[in-house]
Design a protein that fits this description.
By secondary structure, the chain is mainly α. It has two helices and no strands. The termini are far apart.
Length: 93
């Protein structure tokens, strides 16, 4: 009868290992979900930052064009003033 009792005793070691592995897997899945949420939030933040920087670049390009126009205008005014001054100097002679 002792033999039968021993034979009936279940070896639960594989079940314990399976439970450990499932617990680790559940923990890993929870960790990965948290990491995915953080990554998605970071992605959203970086996307907004990129959009802001692109808007600033567009604005800077517009400012550059305006600045170039103002420089050209200044050069035209300088040349015209120079011509006027030369004419005025010609009157003194």
């Amino acid at each position: 009868m002792a033999k039968k009792a021993t034979a009936r005793t279940l070896n639960i070691e594989p079940l314990d290992r399976l439970e450990e592995k499932i617990t680790l897997l559940v923990s890993l899945v929870a960790k990965l979900r948290l990491e995915q949420t953080r990554t998605a939030e970071e992605n959203t933040r970086l996307t907004k930052e990129v959009e802001t920087l692109q808007a600033r670049i567009t604005e800077a390009k517009g400012s550059h064009v305006e600045l170039s126009g103002l420089r050209e205008e200044r050069e035209v005014i300088r040349l015209r003033l120079s011509e006027m001054l030369q004419k005025l100097e010609g009157l003194d002679q």
